[in-house]
Design goal:
With about 100 residues, this protein is an alpha+beta fold. Helix content is about 35%, strand content about 20%. The protein contains four helices and four strands; from the N terminus they run αβββαβαα. The protein has a four-stranded mixed sheet with strand order 3-2-1-4, with helices on one face. β1 and β2 form a beta hairpin. It is globular. The termini are far apart.
Length: about 100
């Protein structure tokens, strides 16, 4: 994306999903914005309770704007603190395996 292009703001549905996640899984929650190529970006949410979630947005810039717009959602990277906070349970492992 060139600097001349405008950032597509997150939709109300994307904002609502992130806000509901924070409300359900504790404050502060963390968000890691990952580029997923042509599909856009994935905002991986890690709740204070260790739950994982995600919101797919059209660009990395949109993902960053989403994180900034949601109260009690902190921008993060996959550092040791964020990784250790994530709790991957059996249900999530089955989902990742396509079952």
């Amino acid at each position: 994306m060139s600097e001349a292009e405008e950032t597509v703001p997150p939709t109300s549905a994307q904002l609502t999903a992130a806000r509901k996640f924070v409300k359900a899984h504790g404050k502060p929650s963390r968000a890691v914005v990952e580029n997923i190529g042509r599909a856009g970006a994935r905002v991986v949410l890690v709740g204070a309770d260790g739950a994982l979630g995600d919101v797919v947005v059209p660009t990395v810039a949109t993902g960053e704007a989403l994180v900034e717009a949601v109260e009690d959602l902190e921008a993060a990277s996959w550092d040791a603190e964020t990784v250790n906070q994530a709790k991957i349970g059996p249900e999530h492992r089955r989902k990742m395996a396509g079952r």
